[in-house]
Amino acid sequence: MASRALDIIDTGPRFTQAEAIRLNNLFRGHDAGEMLAAVIADDLIGNAAIISSFGAESAVLLHLVTRIAPDLPVLFLDTGKHFDETLAYRDLLAGQLGLNLVNLTPDPADLATRDETGLRWSYDPDGCCEIRKVRPLARALAGFDATFTGRKGFQSTTRAGLPRFEIDTTDTAGRLKINPLASWSRQDIAAYFETHALPPHPLVADGYPSIGCAPCTSKVQPGEDPRAGRWRGWEKVECGIHVPDKPGEEPFL
Questions:
Q1: Which residues are catalytic?
Q2: What is the spatial distance between Cα 217 and Cα 92, in angstroms, rounded to a whole number?
Q3: How many CB atoms within 10 Å of residue 237?
Q4: How far is CA 74 from CA 29, 118, 176, 244, in A?
Q5: Among the residues of the chain, which ranges form H helices?
Q6: How many C-beta neighbours within 10 Å does residue 66 have?
Q7: Percentage of the chain lying above the pLDDT 70 cut
């Protein structure tokens, strides 16, 4: 599926931590739909985009946001390492929801000099994520003031207490990161899928509640965190595009 072009204009620093706190306070007690309608209609967040992995629960964020702002760019990191099922799911949702899909790919020069064999994931997963996710996204985000993510507090212990609004810590641009589903439960997600007849990712039924690149994603056992299958066996819990202020999750830019 062809992706649409981005008109990138770097506008400099955007938001401060104080403004993120103010937004969290302003929309405390409002449901996600009300919050999204208000920040988009009142232009409180500037030029925004959705970041989507087209993973297990991605359809919820995509439907929730694009029914309010259907033309919002949806940025997908096409790493070259995704499951075939994820790429098919991306195309299905893009067509069904009418998404403004933008596929982001790694710099060929980076691949040629730093991952010529395509096996960097097997000995340096941080470096692989940097080449295939962090750098392409950083280039694309130069023109945006805010991003929407599908992160949720229940997904892992490192995401517990996730706020709705935060400042992106991966750079110094003061970009706002919005997590509309931060306080949603597994039951909330399941109910939204059912209410809006959203198609599930085909790998969920096979034991993959969190889905990233194929080489670094394994099935999750009963009782484990939904993200336990990501980078199993490594001291790594995030790819680098989301960097909480917690030990062991420092950025590797």
A1: 239
A2: 22
A3: 19
A4: 27, 26, 16, 23
A5: 17-26, 32-41, 58-66, 84-97, 108-114, 125-129, 135-140, 186-195
A6: 19
A7: 83
